[in-house]
Design a protein that fits this description.
By secondary structure, the protein is α/β, with parallel strands linked by helices. The chain is 44% helix and 14% strand. The protein has twelve helices and eight strands. It is globular, with a radius of gyration of 17 Å. It binds phosphoenolpyruvate.
Length: 252
């Protein structure tokens, strides 16, 4: 059965002290609540990953990186490899966030390499994709998403797909306060699952968790997560406050 997941992307927020305080709050609160099979993930900035992972060891909180490079090592100033992440005990990574695609020109082709590299190192990935506002306005959102998946991910084998969580994040809803309606999210998630089914078969498609991301907050999480093909969320702004993030986790 596929898992529910709530993942917090801290982006370039929270220095070491703030990261420690936030993860402590999350550990304490999740020790005492019944949250069944929900996975809870946080993604701090690179420099704080090791410390936060050490603190979270043995708790319900899993720690992921926000990005990684597709090569193992070499002259790639400022980059971090899968091997380096694993060396400090990080086995999960977010790939293809829209901010990486928009500000750092990450292409589907590059992301295909990153996905293979991470999975080749037995890392789990949260693979992000989603359309721009103009794509939705011109009713091209389904074809944009289809191309992002086909070009960035569908080279993987069925076995490799077992390492993948998908995160549908319409770019127009990220950090804007605008949210896709629960119906819009469900419509796209069902479409994504149908693409998975055509490529990998129904049984495998049913096993893949598909998260929604884009201005999820305590007030709208329940309705969005209640949709049958929405298996949780990738949370930005609301992941920075323990109370808000925990309220979202508790909607499961
Ligand atoms: C994100 O950056 O992945 C995100 C969903 O951000 P926010 O929740 O702030 O819209």
């Amino acid at each position: 059965m596929r898992k529910n997941i709530v993942a917090g992307n801290w982006k370039m927020n929270n220095d070491l002290d703030a990261s420690i305080e936030l993860v402590h709050e999350l550990i304490l609160a999740t020790d005492n609540i019944e949250i069944g099979y929900t996975r809870i993930v946080v993604a701090p900035t690179f420099v704080n990953l090791q410390k936060i992972r050490e603190i979270a060891e043995g708790s319900r909180i899993e720690v992921a990186a926000q990005n990684m490079h597709q090569e193992s090592n070499g002259a790639f100033t400022g980059e971090v490899s899968a091997e380096m992440l694993q060396n400090i005990g990080i086995n999960d990574v977010i790939l293809g966030h829209s901010e990486r695609r928009l500000y750092y020109n990450e292409t589907d082709k590059m992301l295909a390499k990153k996905a293979s590299k991470a999975i080749g190192n037995n890392m789990n990935i949260i693979f992000c994709f989603g359309e721009l506002l103009e794509d939705r306005k011109s009713e091209n959102h389904f074809s944009v998403v289809e191309n992002q998946l086909k070009n960035g991910l569908f080279h993987l084998t069925a076995k490799e797909l077992g390492f993948v969580v998908l995160a549908y994040e319409p770019v127009w809803a990220i950090g804007t306060g605008e949210t896709a309606s629960p119906e819009q999210a469900q419509e796209m998630h069902a479409f994504i699952r149908s693409l998975l089914s055509s490529k990998y078969g129904k049984e495998i498609a049913e096993e893949v968790s598909i998260l929604y991301g884009g201005s999820v907050k305590p007030s709208n999480a329940k309705e969005i997560f209640s949709k049958p093909d929405v298996d949780g969320g990738l949370i930005g702004g609301a992941a920075l406050k323990a109370d808000d993030f925990l309220a979202i986790v508790k909607t499961f």
